[in-house]
Write a structure and sequence with these properties.
alpha+beta; about 25% strand; 4 helices; four-stranded mixed sheet
């Protein structure tokens, strides 16, 4: 089945960094049931459950980003998934001036201390028409498909440009 040409949606998923933490936590819990010090096992199980909470919340598959006929929706920030229930932010197309895609800079370490991935979008910035504060969201726990966003934007809001920003720079976009 072909995707809807008027809707593009990305959901949070279990990231490559979350999978090893989840696996290590499950192994640790399994090994602790073999210990004789029950109090130590309870403490480590509590810590392991706290570590597993992050990937488990991301794996709930909440909407991270959506572009449809009505406008753009940014889901809650990844940090808000774990601590509190963040609310989505909706921006109607009538308020959008342009969409900037800021790529990862391969010369700078990534957000989690790893190496940045060349060619991937690190942040999505929406500039508003009325010069009010724009909305910027880090692409973390999900991946942005540039081509899909561009085609949906062209279909539902043809006057709005999707342009590449410079890596690590909030300034004017490059074409």
């Amino acid at each position: 089945m072909l995707p809807d040409p008027g809707c593009y949606e990305e959901r949070y998923r279990l990231t490559a960094g979350g999978a090893p933490a989840l696996g290590a936590s499950l192994i640790t819990v399994g090994l602790l049931f073999r210990t004789e010090a029950l109090w130590a096992a309870c403490v480590v199980i509590a810590v392991a459950l706290a570590i597993m909470l992050g990937p488990a919340m991301a794996a709930r598959r909440r909407v991270a980003f959506r572009a449809d006929y009505a406008g753009l929706t940014f889901g809650p920030a990844p940090r808000a998934l774990m601590v509190r229930r963040g609310r989505p932010v909706f921006i109607p197309w009538g308020e959008v001036d342009k969409i900037l895609l800021h790529p990862d800079d391969p010369g700078i370490a990534g957000r989690s201390g790893g190496v940045a991935r060349s060619g991937r979008v690190a942040r999505v910035e929406v500039r508003r028409r009325d010069q009010a504060a724009g909305m910027t969201r880090e692409v973390s726990g999900w991946r942005l498909n540039r081509e899909r966003l561009t085609s949906v934007t062209a279909a539902v809001a043809p006057g709005i440009a999707v342009v590449e920003g410079q890596p690590g720079v909030e300034g004017p976009p490059r074409t």
